[in-house]
Design a protein that fits this description.
Length: 368
């Protein structure tokens, strides 16, 4: 049985004296994005390995139907590092001279797309050896956003939420209290996957500052949220105050409207009274016109009294009619003065009047 086991080991593992990769580090590696990773590939040569040295790093496809991608090559004492475009400028050999037994490869500025299976193959005829590495590039959680939902009144339910936009799953959320006794409320319900903490029937004791920590295998980030639980307001008093304010506003509007209407009607009434006064009362006559009219009437009387039959034929009716009847004015005693009677020529002659010429007057009593 022992001899059979030894033969099986030699058959499947190859000769112990040929080219061998001696690295013993883990082949499953997890790194955060942005970091640098070293894929360790140390090897030893045997005396019979006399062929040219060739080192090749390749990215193995996850699908067997696809071909592997060559990442970097050392051949003919020269390194070739620009085979794989996504890693161009970010990959190189760890040793400046890989033929000295160090075929390790470094990848800088890791990205999530760099995740995959990498193979190191060292060949120096007749010796050949290879080793595979399973690299997982994880994204650390981004800074989470913390906020509270629901009413912050005593006796109500509220929820504290915490969420990171970026981060490789699985993400886990942990809530802590940073003020007071630093103990979470007894009725708090935590959801480490969803990142929520529910506070049921919250009281003022639950007020304080809470911290949420988002973490995965490659990093952590945290945020803070302030919770202030207060007593509910007096709803009845608020409603009564609102109603009273509305009524006061309506009363003020009504008073303003009443005053405007009253002022408008008063102004309209004053205009109507002014129009009536202007229509009913004629304008007063000037004192000069009244005095001239009175003097004219007096001179007319004296002229009529001095008429004689010899000059009566020189007086004509049209000239006598030039004195309009409305120009007669009352004397200072306010007694009406009768207009002069128009007598015919024969009657005036019998009375011994002497005809005279009366000068014409305009409407205001001036002599033309």
């Amino acid at each position: 049985y022992f001899i059979y086991a030894s033969l099986s080991f030699l058959l499947f593992s190859g000769p112990a004296c040929g080219l061998q990769i001696t690295s013993t580090d883990s082949t499953s590696i997890e790194k955060a994005s942005g970091q640098i990773v070293k894929l360790d590939c140390q090897y030893t040569l045997a005396a019979e390995d006399s062929g040219p040295l060739d080192i090749e790093w390749s990215l193995q496809p996850s699908d067997n139907q696809k071909k592997e991608e060559v990442v970097i090559v050392y051949s003919g004492d020269r390194a070739f590092e620009h085979y794989y475009e996504p890693l161009k400028g970010r990959v190189h050999f760890n040793s400046p001279d890989p033929k000295n037994g160090d075929a390790s490869m470094n990848i800088m500025g890791l990205k999530a797309t760099d995740t995959g299976t990498y193979q190191c193959k060292v060949k120096k005829v007749p010796g050949i050896s290879s080793r595979k590495f399973f690299l997982t590039v994880m994204v650390r959680p981004s800074k989470p956003r913390c906020y509270a939902e629901g009413q912050t009144h005593a006796g109500k339910d509220m929820v504290l939420r915490c969420s990171s936009v970026e981060g490789t799953q699985p993400l886990q959320y942990v809530w802590e209290r940073t003020t007071g006794n630093k103990l979470l409320p007894p009725l708090a319900v935590l959801d480490p996957v969803g990142g929520t903490m529910s506070l049921r029937n919250a009281t003022e004791v639950a007020s304080g500052t809470y911290k949420c920590i988002a973490k995965n295998r490659v990093g952590t980030e945290e945020c803070l949220v302030e919770v202030n639980i207060t007593q509910p307001p007096n709803t009845a008093g608020v409603i009564a105050g609102v109603v009273i304010c509305i009524l006061l506003v309506l009363i003020l509007l009504a008073l303003l409207l009443f005053c405007c209407c009253r002022a408008r009607n008063k102004k309209k009434y004053e205009k109507e009274i002014a129009y009536e006064i202007r229509e009913d009362v004629p304008p007063p006559k000037s004192r000069v016109s009244t005095a001239r009219s009175f003097t004219s009437v007096g001179s007319q009387r004296s002229s009529l009294g001095s008429m004689s039959p010899s000059n009566l034929h020189e007086y004509t009716k049209p000239q006598y009619d030039k004195i309009p009847p409305e120009e007669y004015v009352r004397p200072p005693s306010h007694a009406p003065i009768p207009p002069p009677s128009r007598m015919a020529g024969p009657n005036l002659s019998r009375m011994g009047a002497i005809p005279v010429m009366v000068p014409a007057q305009n409407r205001d009593g001036s002599i033309v």
